[in-house]
# Entry
Amino acid sequence: MTEGKLIQILKAKSKEIMQQDKHYHDFAHVMGVYHNIEKLLRYEFGHRLVLLTAALFHDIERNKEYHGAAAALTVEEILSNIEEFPKALIEHVARIIRAHDNAQIKNDEKLFYDADKMDAFNDLATARSFMMYAKDGLTLRQACEQYCQLIDRFYRHLHTDTAKWLIAKDY
# Structure
């Protein structure tokens, strides 16, 4: 099976999962991260299939407190049941997902973190953030302040100059 066909299977599975009661970190976010991985890989070295797979499944347990760790366990089960997915890559995908809300040490973990945070620098992410702030009862002024702090923190913590360069116009 070609990598392209495998990616289509993975996208369909991700879409099925992410459409189940996901309000903010939904399939649109997953695809934003996916596309950011593709952009980063034009300039940076990383394992394409592993990173794209991690993008598709990283927020499947977003409703849980330690969503990265929970999603890593779930993705191991999902990928084990997809016959075409290379079994030797499952732990690599799980490690990247686990690291996305912890310390990122290895290159693929850093690239993934950057791709995830880069998704905050677009119009849909801005709307998503303000929906969450409204739900939390923040005033518009409080929401604006909190959003600016969030974006600044995300930008400062990006690992690669490439990510900073790619989102510079939106920052």
Q: What stands out?
A: The mean pLDDT is 93. The chain has nine helices and no strands.
